[in-house]
Design a protein that fits this description.
Layout: E1 2-4, E2 7-18, H1 23-29, E3 32-47, E4 56-71, E5 77-93, E6 97-105
Antiparallel strand pairs: 1-2, 2-3, 3-4, 4-5, 5-6
Length: 106
Amino acid sequence: VHLGNGRADLALRFDGLSLPVLAPYVAGLARVELRRGELGGELALALAPAGADPRITVDGRIAVSDFETADAARGRELVSWRRLDVEDIAATVAPTRVAIGRVRAD
């Protein structure tokens, strides 16, 4: 973490974050059961002072492994994969923009 001049720069590294803990939030948005999955990645997050453009910047990569969802009404598998890698992410908020360099699925 680096703070200075009203700006914050953070380096985030995470691995093995359980996605089923998000199930109550997903259920409120869609009729999908989030059965399993883990999130990992490395992201650089920059928060600029008010009035700066862009206000928030995120760069890096994420991976979702051992992912499975089901149709909540029928209990049947909906979407699953062993691993999904999203690389070269470049996103901003205010203005909102997202660019992704590569997506690989297994």
